[in-house]
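anyone seen this seq b4? input:
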Amino acid sequence: MTSSPQPPHEPHPNHDRGLEFDLSTLISRRSLGMFLGAGTAAALAACTPGGSSTAAESSTALAASTPTPAASSTAATSTPSASPTLTRAIAECGVEIPQETAGPYPGDGSNGPNVLAASGVVRQDITSSFGTSSTTADGVPLTVTLTLLDNANGCAPLSGAAVYAWHCDKAGKYSMYDAGLKNENYLRGVQAADANGQVIFQTIFPGAYSGRWPHIHFEVFESMDNATAAGQVLAVSQIALTDAACKEVYASAGYESSARNFPRTTLKSDNVFGNDGGIYQLATMTGSVSGGYTAGLNVTV
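predicted toks r here
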């Protein structure tokens, strides 16, 4: 057996070690409000968009959370199997989005650089850096729609909240942290939720790096003011991208390192999604390499 290549970014001994590892750090820098309801998420219910009979693609998800496809879809979602009882249960609202690690590259001031304090971070298109650089991260276009739902109020749209989203580039590297990218801040941005509780980001399809399933990080804040001040957080979680979409994108030019890394990790073996196969965090995806992809997820907080 040959050894796996080193991750494309700088080694970090604590990369995505899970919520338990992050508790002390997160609690020390922020209000305990970010964990609202996390201990009561035992009910088998969630609001995940989709259209198949698998648990992560329940057909009765709220219609408002499903983005309009940017192109014809060939990317069917690949999900873990589930019993009919669980499939029906997660179609109901009530389970809050799993709390996850922000990882070692959040850029939110918790471990060094803080993009949230920078003028220009509030934007829908996050493909380019802002401020002192205008470098654009290239890759297959991806539109991400998150629908924020208020669990305490029957999953009504959580308008007025804000989301900070970030992810790696097509080579699996993170702006603000990796060698050669410390002066870049692309693939990071903040959006306020509209009247439907939705935030939309225009970005690129992230790459796959060693040890992790392809994902997008996000933090939900109770208001835009809190987001730009790195204030009270309601949820910290991650979006899992679908197997079919990843296979198609990573077979295209520019994603060669992802094509090598992707087969080495599954949703079940991933150290973040592995406890439940990403059942509550797996996006509904449509699109094509030529026309771009969409990803939608209901986020109950």
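Residues 1-15, 17-91 have pLDDT under 50 and may be disordered. The longest helix spans residues 19-29. kinda curious what u guys think
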